[in-house]
Design a protein that fits this description.
Layout (H helix, E strand, L loop, with lengths): L2 H24 L6 H27 L9 H25 L12 H6 L8 H10 L2 H12 L4 H26 L4 H23 L6
């Protein structure tokens, strides 16, 4: 698996955390960069740890299913990607009653909850919830014999940066792009899954 594919997977996996970060930014009257760094750090660390755990689980039995590893990777990535895309489309179809113009403007921010600071217990739960997909991707990494240390670091750093952007975007623009980002992430994961399957079947090779 190439570095480009690892980066694309990292970006896609970070979309759930990005969506939560947007909501966190929306709840801030004025952006607090210390809080933003803490939020990004939580999500980045867990997004890096989960693929390692998945890789350890997958490594235990990857040798028994070498002939089917590309199918497993394909099914896992397609499931994760389709789930992300479905949830994004569902959310996009739901009416937004927070603001008449649905634009994340100052009116939206005025209606947002007051900044309640950092709730570490809540962040811990959210970080785990948004990184479950990364656990499944880690299993596919084991089947594909991907270097897990560098991959996990890349995914963690990408998530950290994207979450910083998410907090800032949420504070500035509201939730306008949250669902679209999740939809894009789901589509990317599906496309990577298809590429892995075709590569494993010998249809393409790059």
């Amino acid at each position: 698996m190439s570095i480009v594919e690892i980066i694309l997977i990292g970006v896609s996996l970070a979309m759930d955390a990005f969506a939560v970060s947007v909501c966190k930014g929306l709840s801030m009257k004025k952006i607090n960069w210390i809080h933003a760094i803490i939020i990004g750090g939580f999500f980045g660390v867990f997004q890096a740890i989960m693929p390692v755990l998945g890789w350890l689980l997958g490594s235990g039995f990857s040798s028994y299913i070498d002939r089917f590893d590309h199918w497993i990777a394909f099914l896992l990535l397609m499931f994760i990607g389709a789930k992300m895309a479905f949830e994004a489309v569902k959310e996009m179809r739901e009416p937004d009653i927070s603001c008449d113009c649905e634009c994340g403007c100052e009116k939206c921010n005025d209606n947002a909850k007051p900044d309640e600071g950092i709730k570490f217990a809540e962040l811990f739960v959210l970080a785990i919830a948004t990184s479950i997909d990364a656990l499944a991707v880690g299993i596919t990494f084991a089947f594909l014999e991907v270097s897990i240390v560098s991959s996990a670091l890349i995914i963690g750093v990408i998530t950290f940066v994207i979450c910083l952007f998410g907090v800032a975007a949420g504070n500035r623009f509201g939730s306008r792009y949250k669902s679209k980002a999740e939809l894009a992430g789901g589509i990317i994961l599906c496309l990577i899954g298809i590429k892995i399957l075709l590569d494993g079947l010998g249809v393409i090779s790059f």
